[in-house]
Amino acid sequence: MSRVEEKIFYVSGRPIGRPVNRTQSIPVLVQTHSLTRIRAFKRWMKSHDFDCSDALEIVDDGCVGGGISVRAVCDLKEGDLVATIPKSACLTIQTSGAREMIESAGLAGSLGLAVAVMYERSLGPASPWHGYLQLLPDRECVPLVWSLREVDAFLSGTELHKTVKEDKSSVYEDWREFIEPLVLSGTWNLDPDRFGVEQYFSAKTLVSSRSFQIDSCYGFGMVPLADLFNHKTGAEHVHFTSVTSSSSSDDDGDSDISYESHDGESSIVNSNTRSSGKDDTNLEMIIVKYAEAGCEVFNTYGIIGNAALLYRYGFTEPDNQYDIVNIDLALVVRWCSSAFSGRYCRARVSCWRKLNYLGSANQHCEYFEISCDGEPELELLVLLYIIFLQEEDYEKLGYMSDALVNLDESTAIVKLVKATSNKRMKMDQETSGDIKELLVSDNVCFALSSLADLRESLYGSSSVEEDTKKIERCCDMKERKAYHSLVLRKCERLILGRLRDYASKRSSKKKL
Ligand SMILES: C[S@@+](CC[C@H](N)C(=O)[O-])C[C@H]1O[C@@H](n2cnc3c(N)ncnc32)[C@H](O)[C@@H]1O
What ranges does the record give for the region Disordered, renumbered to this chain (predicted)? Predict the structure, then answer.
């Protein structure tokens, strides 16, 4: 996974879609057409030994984001088993007819799975997955397939702007490097019209929005039926569980199945590392929360923020309590260089890097997370604290930095603050875990506010109030791209506002 993807995926989120009653607005012809497709899918499931309870109804009648959804026909109670899905019926690199081609080309991850999807689609009714594939949209409306003009118009200043632009070009490069040669070689008789760059982008959107991590044997793939449930984090009704009938298997017992969160950046697979396949295992869908008859039955795609939801699934959640904003290290450096000399700034940043308090996941931290309630990440506070150290304290820090590197985070910070400030810390402050409070001096608070302003200036001149008005005027179904981009932007700006509150509360506290 690249750094930009990591920045987008390792965020938290809680989307709750707004129920929209579309029934009256759907032309009868479209409904009939989708009914036919749903029936064909049900026949396909039957012929592939799916066991789908009559208590679930697959509908296309105007769910949260449009498209297909699943409803409860009767009351569903916790523990009810509502579906059993044979793993062998999932579309993965291993189960696809393109397996040999994909593996011999050394492809894996989302690239390999996208090729498997394109391949099965190219077979039309001859594909063993035709009954499933015919129910899927051509592509998901994620920013990857927006035009560059739309990306610039809707995403400027947001977490996604740069990422999506970079992604568009790297997905194109992947196609040119790995897929075009497969077509041109003639070895696999691939129809160029089915393996073009457009088809690859479409397949990538389906993989991004519908793939699950199945198990170590099947890897990740498309799980028919499981991928028809819409998302509601923290309020989902259903979980997917992997059931292994063989006690000698790696996957003894049950384990929850999650939506695939890695983009399979490594496109080269070592075929020796793949374990031998077992077809005697199923996925089970179990109700984890009571669902009333007639209600939509939701799954969860994980705890992710709005940027990740929009990036991967094409929608956002206005009250996403797991939303975050990232502040790039580059932005901190820019702000620092405006207040101090470039040389001063470089020295302080490299001192901070040397201290390496950052924990293993963040060792090469290039951005700092601001949580939904406006709380900055500890590493940002450490950096700002170091930036504002008086020269003599900074020198002291230089002498003691080697001794701090291998300490645990809290101990190192207590020692750092003790050595470099006049504060007399009480023992309870040292041990209460309230480490951040030790670092938020008035200067640090001032810097946090300035950073919030600088980060917000990236959105251009419109205010949050103007964004709110635009959202009210916007239809989330008809103007999907504009609507969800505005929600993303507004939520990011609200978090930046809370960061300012965080800073001002703390600086005024000190003045009391
Ligand atoms: C795994 S599919 C779910 C089934 C999908 N509705 C369909 O028509 O097949 C994921 C897609 O459903 C839509 N979706 C799921 N949950 C949503 C929500 N809470 N709000 C808006 N759209 C949602 C998004 O388009 C997303 O990319």
Answer: 243-277
